[in-house]
Amino acid sequence: MSKVGAATVLVAIVAALIGPALARSDPAAQDLARRLDGPSATHWFGLDEVGRDIFARVLAGARISLLVGIVVVSISSAVGTLLGSIAGYFGGLIDEAISRIIDILLAFPGLLLVIALVAVLGPSLANVVVALSLIGWVGYARLVRGQVLRAREFEFVQAARALGAGTPRILVRHVIPTALPALTVQATLGMGGAILAEAALSFLGLGVQPPTPSWGTMLNGGRTHLLDAPHLTIFPGLAIAFLVLGFNFLGDGLRDALDPVTRRAG
What we know:
Radius of gyration: 22 Å
Shape: elongated
CATH superfamily: MetI-like
Order of helices and strands: HHHHHHHHHHHH
Structural class: mainly alpha
Number of domains: 1
CATH architecture: Orthogonal Bundle
């Protein structure tokens, strides 16, 4: 299944990069006379409620989803790795303070916290990224902290400390690299979670604002036409499902490949 996931993600990335060349229409162009037309040879996914080409908008929406996923995962993993490394390596009061912040944030449903933050900050793509990043670092910090707690007792880490290596060098050269396999898996799975969260926020009107194409806003616009024009929700819904499943399958495959325990069991 990991190959299926990798292929799905690769197709989505290529489609997002060359979307304008693949699309036959401008995603913002309207043809009110043919609004709600179904799929055809001219418009493969049909037209939406104001006559815009759904295929072109799905391709444009892929850019938004992948952009949000990449930026959120990059920020969250960087902040989480930094704080988790500090907490795990130094321990004591520093570890206690960071761990309590993690516990507090984990006590609440993540999506509800994101919705509350976006509601305060205001609906926009930038605020969605900020809100998801403010919540998303917690999982990475907890993961890295556990890896660092284990790695700081390794003989080569103690040897580097005995030789007088500074803390930043020990962390960057010896400790954090031991967490990279688990961090890679977490980041891959986090891409799917960020894409799904962005779609949910856009569906609720808190994310990407019209007329910018987003899979979530497309679902919201098509929900009033489920009976007379189901293609308005089918295609963006399938796009979300396939891309999120693709990242999940890829993450599971990476976990099996990078986890030595799983490899030995296989």
